[in-house]
Structures are given as C-alpha cells and as structure tokens.
Amino acid sequence: MKYDLSRRGMIQQLCGGLGAVGLSALLGEGTADAATPGHYAGPQLPAKAKNVIFLFMAGGPSQLDMFDPKPILAKYEGQRPNSVDLRTERQTGGLLPSPFQFKKAGRSGIEVSELLPQTASVIDDVCVIRSMYTYNPTHVPARSLIHSGTILANRPSFGAWVSYGLGSVNENLPSFVVLTPGGGGEGMWRAGFLPAEHQGVPFNDAEIEPEKMIANLRNQWLDAKEQRHQLDALQALNRNFSAQFGVDPYLEGRIKSMEAAYRMQSEALQVYDIRKEPEAIRQEYGKTPFANGCLMARRLVEAGVRFIHVYYGQGQPWDDHKGINKELTARCPDMDQAAAALVRDLKRRGLLDSTLVVWGGEFGRTPVSESGDGRDHNPYGYTMWVAGGGFKGGLAYGSTDEFGFKAAENPVSIHDLHATLLNQLGVDHTRLTYRYAGRDFRLTDVYGEVVKDLLV
Amino acid sequence: MGRCALAVFLLGGLLFAQAPDTAFFEARIRPVLVAKCYACHASTLATPASGLSLDTRAGVLKGGDGGTVIVPGKPAESRLLSAIRYNDADLQMPPNGKLSDSTIGDFETWIASGAPDPRTGPSTAAKGPAPLKGMSIADGRKWWAFQPVHEWPAPAAADPQWAKTKIDSFILAKLAEKSLKPSPPADAAVLVTRAYVDLLGYKPTYAEVQAFVKDSSPKAYENLIERLLASPHYGEAWGRHWMDVARYGEDNSTGEATNTPYPYAWRYRDWIIESLNRDVPFDRFVKLQLAADLMPGATRADERALGYLGAAQVYHKDQRLSHDVVYGFLTDDWDERIDAVSRGLLGMTVACARCHDHKFDPIPTKDYYGMAGMFASTMRAERPTFDVPPEIEQRFLWVQRRLQDLRYSADLLTNEASTVVGSEARVVKWKAEIESLRTEVEGWHDRYPQLVDHLERFWTFPPPKPANPPPAAAAAPRRRRASPTDPFMNTVYDCAQYVDGTDKNYTMIVYKAGEARDLPVMMHGNVASPGEIAPRHFLTVLSNGDTTFHQGSGRREFADDLFTDGAPLAARVIVNRVWGWHFGKPLVATPSDFGVQGEKPTHPELLDDLAARFIAHGWSLKWLHREIMLSATYRQASQPRPDAEAGNPGNTLLWRMNPRRLDIEAFRDTLLRSAGQLSEEMYGPSADLDSPTDLRRTVYGKVSRSRLNNLLRQYDFPDPMQTSGGRDLTITSLQQLFLMNSPFLHNLSGTLAKSVAGESDVPAKVRALYRKILSRDPSAKELELAVAFLNGSSVDEYAQVLLSTNEEIFWQ
Asked: Is the pLDDT of residue B646 over 50?
C-alpha cells in the first residue's frame, strides 16, 4: 500500500465498502447523490452501461449442446480426425454428437438448442460469442482468468476493478455483491491489492430471508425502538468524545457510519428481500436458488449496486465429464428460465440498455467424448453471451472450427471480453490502472482489444 | 479443419491474386502485425525481442537473432510462418494465443506472393511515448536508497528543552522550516494507553492506567516502556506486524491434492513471537527465516523460522497438464517468493522484472531469474521437531514429496482411469514405487516411529470393496490425517525442481535433493522461450563485486548478502516499517517500494541516522522501540490543531501524534480484555475466531488464504497472499453491524453486566463498567446520562454502548 497523506486521500481511506460514509458528505461538498467517486482517471468513453450482472456457470457449460450447433459431429461420430487431437485435461475419445436439436430463434434466426427455449425467446437481445478462448484447461486457473484476467491468486477480480474505477452509486450498499449458494467461495471476488472496500461481498442466495443471507443484519435481542434508544446513548457519548478530542475524520465518519448501519438494517430488509416481488415475477424467474439470485441481481441493479456475480449452484455443476446429456437435460431448464427472465425483466423496466448481462463459464467442453458419454474441459473455443449495455442483440459472432473445438473465425479472448465490457462502462481498459509493487496493474495486463463488432 | 484452412487460403488467393501488390498487406497483414507483434518486435523499442523488428520492411527481411524469418515466395522456408502455426513447441508466436487459421492463411498467401511490403521508414503505428527503460545499474548505484547509511549530526534544536532524543532534533528542524511547533506532551492516561496498544497490542486496564498515572518517579515513563518491552505479550503484538510482511497463512488459495494446507504453520508464528520477545537481532531473525537449515549454530527449534518459505502460497499442479503448463505453475510459485522477499525485506519490486527488464528500477531480468534459481532449488517439506541423523532426515524430506506425488497420481488415475492413456499400467508402476519406498521408510521404524507414522497415509489404501459387504465391516485401516500437534514443522530444504515432460500424457515433477539449478531468463516470462542462463546471484545493483552463489540453493549466501551488501537498504526498510507501526505513518510512504516509483522519505537524514544507529546497536528492535518511544516526538498529544494542519496537511512533519483506529487484533483483544475474558495462554495451534469458546488473542486465530475469517476481512486484515506494507483502516457499516448485532458483542455485554451485578446501586454499576471498559471513571455528565439510560434499559445494553464507543476503538 501507499500511505496517502492528503486529506482527501485520508478520508477516502476511511470510507468504503458496505455503507461507507459518502466522501462528499465528509468533505462537506453536499452533492445531490452522496456517491463515492471512482478512481478511473483515463478518458471518459461514452458509457453505455452502468452495471454488470455476471451469470457464472462454474464448471464449463457445453457450447456444443447449447449454442454452437455442429451437425457434422453425427457424421463423424466416434472418429478422431487429427484436427481434434488437442490436449485438454483428460484423455478423450472420438467425436460425440449432441442429441439436442437446434432451432433458428427470433428475427435474427440464431440457432439455439432445444435445451434453452427461454433463452431462444430473448435471443434478439442477446449477443452470442461463439469464438471465446482462454488459456488454461483446469478449473481454478481458468476461473481465475475469467474473473481477474490472470491465474495468479492475488490479483483483483473484475468486480473489484469496476468498483474501484467507477465508485459506488449507493452509499448504503456495497458496490460489488456476489450471490452464491452457501455464501462461500474460493476468493474469486477478491480485491487483491486494491483497497479492501472493493472486494465482493458474498451473500448466500440459497436463503431468501435477508437475515440469513447477511451476518449480523438483525438484532436478536432488541426491537428497533430499543436499539434506537441504545444508539442515541452511544452517539451522545461519541459526540462528547469528539467535542473533547477535536475534529477528526475517523471519529466523524464512524458516527455517520453507525447511523448508516442502523438504517441499513431496515433498508436491507427491503432491497434484499425478493419476497417483496409480485408472485407473477417470481413465477417468471422460477424459485430455485439461481432464479432467486437473478431476481435479486435485478433488485440490486435498481438499488445502485455496480457489479453482481450470480453463481449457478455450488461447486462446479457444469463440469459434465460423464452422462452429459442427462445432466444437461436436468440442469438447463431452471438456468434457462431465470437467465431469460432476467433479460426480459430488465428490458421491460428499461434497464437492459444500461446493464451488461454476461453469461458463461470458465471454459467450454470438447466435441470429443470423455468416458464415452461426457465431455472434457475446452479452453480453445467456447460460447459466452452478453445482453444489454450496447452489445448487439441478435448477433452470433465468431465461430469455432468445423467440429467446435477451437475458436477459428474472430477469436475473442477473455482479455478481449474484459476490454469490451469495460469499454461499455466508459472505461479504456488500458487506462484503468492501479500502481502497486512498483508498476501499474490492469485487469487486462498487457492484453485485450475492444471487439467493436460486438457493439451497437 | 484442414479443409477449412485450405478453403480460406484459396479464397484469399483468388480474391487478391490480381489485386495490386500491397492492398492485401494493408488489409490483412499490417493490422495483425500492429496488434499482435509490434509490442515486442518494433524498431521503436529499446531492445526489440530477439532483435527482431516487424515494423519495417527492412526489419522483416533482416530477421532477428535467430536468422531470417521470412523468405519471400517460400512460405515453407519462412520461420515466421512456422512460429505462428505453433509447429515448433519452442517457438510459438504470438505467445499469448495462436492467431486464427484464416489469419495464418493470410500470412502464407502474403509470403507466397513475395511478401510485398510498402513500408519504408520505421512504424508510425507503434509510435507513442518512448518506451520506458529502467535505470542502468551504474545510475542505480547512485539511487538514494542504495547509498551507505551513516549517522548524521543532530540539527541544532530550536527548542533544546523540548527535545529528549536525537530523533527530536531532526523533527524539530523540519517543523521549524515551516514555522510549526510541536504539540504539548500527551497526558499520562493517554500516554500509558498509547504505550500499551503500541507494544502489547491492547489497551491497559483501569489498574494499569492508575499505576502509571500515580507513579511520581522521574523515570516512570522509561520504566513503563521497559516493563512493556519485557512482557511476553510484546511478541504477540509485534509478531503480528511481522506476519503482515511475511504474508503469514496456513493454507493455499485453493486446497487441492498437490497444494494441501500447512498444519504446522503455527509453529512458525510461535517462533516469530518467541524471537521478538528475545530480541533476536533483526539480521539474524531474517536470516533464520531464509536459511535456518543452512546456518551453523542454528538449532532445530530455529528451523521453525523456515515457515516463511515453507508455508508460502503454492498453486495446484494437475499433472495431466502439459509440461509447459505445469512448469508455468512452478514459476508462479517462485515468483511469489521473489515478490515477498524483495518487497518485504528490501523494498524492491524485483517481480516487475519477470517479463522484461524493470521499467523504472535498475533490475534486469537476469537478476529476477538469478533469484528464481534460488527458489527453484528450494523445496518445501515437513521436518521433524526432534533430532534425526542428517542422512535419514534428508531422505525423509525427499521421500515425503515423492510419496505425495505418487499417491496423488495413483489416486487420480484410479478414480478417473479414463483420463490418461494407459492409466492402469501407470498406477501399477506407481504403486510399486510406493511399496518400495514404504519398505525403505519402515526400516526407520525402530528408532523413528514418528517418521514412519507421518508417511503411512501415503501407502494405506482402502481395501477393495467386497461384492457383498458384511453388515458390520471390519474396521478398515484408516488414512491418518495430519494433526497440527504432530511433531513436524513446515519448512524448506535444498532441492532442485524440474518438470519432466518426456511423457506427453502425464507430467511429473522431479526433485533432486541436495542439488541446485540455474534458470534461463524466460523471454516475456514464458517458460517456452528460454534465453541465456542466469546464474543464481544477489541483486546486481546492490552488489559489491561478484555475488554468484556457490553453496546449494544459495539461500544462505543471499541471506548473508542481504546484511552485507544489502545492509543499508535492508536497515532503511525495517526502520521505516517500525517507524510506521509506531506513528501510524512511515517516513517513506511506500514501505515496500524504495524504488523510483516509490515515495522519497520525508526525513531522509533521520531515516539514515536511525538506520545507521540501528545497525550499530546490533539490529536490536527493542533498542529501536526505546529510541522512538522515549522521544518527545512520540510523546506528543494527538489533538488536531487547525493552524498546524494548514501549514502541514496530513501531519507528515509530525507536529502531533497520529490518532488511529485500533487494528482488528487490538480491538478484539481489548474488547475481550474489558470483559475480563482474554486468555493469557500463549502459543499453540490456531483457533477458529468464530468459535464462542475462543478467548485467546487474535494473533492465534487461524489465517486462511482460501477462506479468510469474516471478522478479519471486515476489519481490513491484509490479504495473506502477498506481503503487506500497512493496513488501510476503513469505516464500513458491516463493521458497525458486528458491534450492534453480533452474538460476540452480546455475550461480552452480558458477561460485563453480570460482573457488576453485585454493585450497590446504579451509579456504582456505571462506574464499574466505565473502569472495566474505558479504564477510567465517568464524568458527572456521563454518569447522569448513564443513569437516565438505565432507567428503563438494561445494564447489558449499556455495557454494549461503552464497548461500541469511538473512545474504545480509537487510540490517541
């Protein structure tokens, strides 16, 4: 870290995270919205989007069964032409065709698998990137790559960069929230060397009662009135202490932060409670943990949270090494329903234009079989999609080779995707930097190009 | 795919066959060169990679260090084409991802057609700011931080009455330049609290405050400092500071088969605490952490210090992956050590020189790989805490890792037999080796049964499942799990690591115990692009003469060089850190970066003088604490002064003491101590901080790199993945929710209420609570407020109020 000795810097150090006291409030700059400004200092690009919702399919969903039709696999079933002799994690066999039918969907006529009828229904709002690639065939390094642009486990995640760069919109909420069943994880939402306030705050979306999602949100022993009474007594002592000691930004900040925490108890109960939604909306999303996460993500966007990760399931559910057809048949429906409902719902509310909805995993899967009826990890070519935020709806971009193994036409790296998403947030990815350990770090390191063809 | 590429090629050929010479180049070739190649291969760069420039026609035709790269008209003879096709495992360009087949086809078309290239001068596209070039070694030797340290004469103090130590003269002189005056001394209660928090890591009790306030001896303060420095709790507080620098952790970012947790890391933590309490000279303190196993006179107990390297982050290595991928993970492990050591001990950002020479500082990549070789020759291993003959111990250190790899591999290919060609045969072979090692290890059983027990888990396989399991299955031999109390330590030893990629389907790591290796400079940090060999050596810019290492890994030589050639820098860095921990802000605002990108010291002569005297006093940290804490500068009040703030915003000149929030360790310990709950028990395996029965000091809480405790996380605990130069102390609502609503605070409040239940009346209860929590008596007004509150609310609630006050979490 560097000790920032300016007053503004000092106060910024004191502010942050969930319900940080607004910087402008502390500086007495009284602006209309007491948001915490970001640190991005590069040229302000035209910002199409303000928020990001990343629907993360840990394990690596199969592009070949969902978005990238390769009917030729049936013709060469069981064969192993030289061109599919790419090294993946495990031993693979011959080509494995997908049993799922693809149909042209929407006005755009993009082919989508029968596994995803709901996604097909919103496909004209979705930009399907069929030529993604990444750099490592195993889960943890690849997850680290898509989340932070590097396999090193000490670098900030995408959400932390966005929080750092753009600041927070709502001082009573964190700017980076992670919705994941169990509320645990492997540090993929870390702040790394960025100030700790930018780390993702994990909420357990297997629960729908806010008290269970967020530790210490409610007092189990006092009601609101008693607690107010107690807080008044505390603040009286705090004010006396300030009067004795003198003006100090920490002391002032903490007095305000206590009030914010008190208010948050009830505000959070509103924002974080999807049971406040009309039943029809709940039905539209579904009522699985992932559906709850998607619906919550929309509420958080409305409340001003910058970046929301929604994890599908615990562990790495999309890691279909065996019995992939049966597994996908069972797993796709609730994912499909909720993800599509989110796109539809955001659009209905006029929020899709300013929200980037990103869907995908850490990699895709092989066209060759593993264990006869499964597919191995495939970092060479796979599909992700982005809806909203100025991405072209109804576009199928790029392609994999003839068997769907490797990105062939217009390959898009994870760095390119990061650069393009940042671009839509108004940020030049080469200029969102943080000086640490002797150099300027970037989310995209020395890589990444904005893929203009994806954009409106 | 072959057909696809051919189709594109034909199409490209047809389209452009009759096009004028350079249109194809402009449309298809130049944009790719600009986007993918110029960053490393441009004539505008100081040193184009491999001497190859692709931004001019001349450069393309001339080729690079390895000869020509294109032969116009002959794609088959053009190495550029082979490189972009990734034909040759050792030359794949661009290194960060193969170009699309259609683009490769374009290049083939272009070369086949004679490589028409209209470019004449150097590239314009790559022009921009001149490429950054770091300082030369010669200029680096003049850099302030690398100069010898020496004592400075004390500036004539403007106020000799005020100045108590030499430090004060330096501080006063700078204040005088701005016409600023220091603050008056802090009052006794504030001062004793400051000293307790600073040296012991928690606030004093009422009795401890009173003992000092009432001590009328002229040496009362000096005596207090001596008493606190002699307390065993000093090591707990200052040990934690060092643990921030040492990025102490007890597991890895993930806990997979090849990067399991460090169950004995706590012994390293205990060693830190003990050593600081004994005031082990700082140079020896550091040397032991780098090389206790190689130092004469170091005891077995000292080898706990090796947790600095032996419990560091490592990445999982899935051995089904290719040679280069596995090798990449290994180099990431080594990179972690380089970063922690160079920034933590020297304030130098050597890790910046992994892919290219440092862009600012005098650190060539050769220095980076010279250090990396040291870590490539150092392997982590669990050592016994008891004495074992060296030949058995050496074998034990090697065998444990080999057994772990064999067992991991056998399990992997048994459970997922389909994942690698010939899994069954491999498993048979590995199991045979496990058996053979088992026989060898069991030979130690009579004399060293604990060594055998420790490895037994690697050869105990569950019995094959019977077709019809009997209802009460006979107790199968269970794989014994390592317990933190087993007599072992997480350490390192000299052992060169290599990646064996001869088997294309399964990569093995080879450990050569007692051997060392030099690494090649890896171009752009890429293991597939080895360059010249970098002998293991100390950082060139700090070295006087040749500092190539000759003994084993070179860890001991490195450690020695740190405190000879590197001594001025090492002393400046630790003195600056210690100053920062005492005052809340260091003299150099970037305590882990003393390079060009770092800040300059606010008081260079003071830093120099203190560093020189620190060395002269035998690198004694306790001497340094005394020197700092006995100064008038340290004893100042911390109240804000608007006039001084205007003259010196941010108090960089120290016209007052910096008031601060307690860090999480001091806060939690102080809360527990207020309620009389803090356990005095020192040392031992780590505890779960979330457990309601854990009443030990926070420094004994488990530090996980994969799942950091939420309370620590909320209160700005540093990321244990990297060396930390200081903590950002934030204010967030989640922190306040912990105080308002957590069972922890609720329980403490209840305990406190019970402890004052026997007091005669409400004012007596309030007074007792004030003494327990804030270590003072309430004012009349405070008493009145409390009595009014308690007329309707409970004592528990009031105890919680006092625990939550700004006064409690703040120190002046």
From this structure: yes
